[in-house]
Amino acid sequence: MTSDEKFRTELNNYIQMDEDTRLKRLDSDELKVDDKNDVLRIRKLLSNYKTDFELWNFLTKNSDTLRNITDLTIYRRSIEVGIEPTARTTDKKHMLC
Predict the structure, then answer these.
(1) Inside any domain, residue 76
(2) Which of 19, 66, 67, 68 is the most exposed place for a label (fewest CB within 10 A)?
(3) Residue 73: which domain range?
(4) Cα–Cα distance between 85 and 63 in angstroms, integer?
(5) CB burial string 41-59: b at 16+ within 10 A, e below
């Protein structure tokens, strides 16, 4: 299992929790999984956003889409390619009057 898969699996667990359960779990240091380091690292990361209810609502609403992303590296690259930089031209021929 790759780190992306572990993260998505753990994130999916938190998405499925109700708000109170998620808050309690993110505040907890208790681990019930064999792979303690990754789970704890992911929990610490997610705990930074535990009260960002807008984010959690977004994740909940879009969980099916997020679950279907099989390779986050490809997704990240496609996002980077899709962002076009805006350039300011100083060429007088291309400036509108």
Answers:
(1) yes
(2) 68
(3) 3-82
(4) 29
(5) ebbeebbeebeeeeebeeb
In sequence order, the 6+-apart residues with CB closer than 8 A to the CB of 23 are: 50, 51
Number of domains in the chain: 1
* CB of 38 closer than 8 Å to CB of 6: yes
Residue 96: inside a domain, yes or no?
no
Asked whether residue 17 is domain-assigned, the answer is: yes
Instruction: Count how many Cα atoms sit within 13 Å of the Cα of residue 52 in the half-sphere of its side chain.
Output: 11
49 within domain boundaries: yes
d(CA 9, CA 14): 9
pLDDT tens digits along 12-38: 999 999 999 999 989 887 766 555 677
3-state helix/strand/coil string of 63-87: HHHHHCCCCHHHHHHHHHHHCCCCC
- Helix residue ranges, H only, the chain: 3-15, 19-27, 36-47, 53-61, 63-67, 72-82
**Closest to 25 in 3D by CA, of 34, 15, 35:** 15
